[in-house]
Amino acid sequence: MEVVFPPLTTSNNSLPIFINSKPTARQRGSIIISEIQEIRVCTNRSCRRQGSMQTLETVTALAPPTVAVKSCGCLSRCGNGPNLVALPAGTLVGHCGTRARAAEVLVALCGGAWDSDAADKSLEALALRNKAEIELNNNNNFSQAELFLSQAIELRPIGGIHITYKDRSIARLALGNHSGALEDAAQALALNPLYPEAYICQGDAFLAMSHFDSAQKSYLTALQIDPSIRRSKSFKARIANLEKLTAVPD
Hints:
This protein is α/β, with parallel strands linked by helices. The protein has two domains: 2-114, 3-Layer(aba) Sandwich (Glutaredoxin), CATH 3.40.30.10; 119-246, Alpha Horseshoe (Serine Threonine Protein Phosphatase 5, Tetratricopeptide repeat), CATH 1.25.40. The chain is 54% helix and 10% strand. It is built from ten helices and eight strands. Strands 2-3-8-7-5-6 form a six-stranded mixed sheet, covered by helices on one side. A two-stranded antiparallel sheet has the order 1-4. A hairpin with an 8-residue loop joins strand 2 (7-8) and strand 3 (17-18). Helix 2 (52-62) packs across helix 3 (99-111). The protein is elongated, with a radius of gyration of 21 Å. Residues 1-34 have low confidence and may be disordered.
């Protein structure tokens, strides 16, 4: 993959450092890195003071499902913070302390080109998704949430679309659009086949349609992917409801 950040010359050649906000045309394509598998954001004291928690939040929300995002300790470049590193190439990016910068860096690392328009659209989609979550969780305004989420999907952000489809599945199910909820859950799983929350949404849609065997299969798949959800009160309630609906009368 092409890296679009110009390197800062250092005596340590094992980790190229990229700190400029935008490369020149001559510098584009000067470094080739392998497929990004993981991004680690420094949340040590110095980088945290410079805004790395906001960077971590933004990168986590917008990363494609194939890219894991984690916090990490000091990357030994405190003067260039906040810093993040893309693995397995070990590409270190500095001065990543705003949402806009984080989005541009993510687009460049995962998309293979510097595209400020894609970064702007990704941030706009994230803002719409956040608004939709407020409507879903606080206001029970499911039609407005569906609208926000549909607008976010149309923007085609760099990542996080599987979460947006999952959220719209919830909104559509609440609106009684069972087939639409099922389609959105399927879209989320097409993007991220190991997304337990999407399997739960799929199970909820099947349950609402009285497809009990399919609902059970979806719930059990979610449990296999993430056994910790067994302790979730909402998951326990789903299983109890399914067992109640499928119980054989004495």
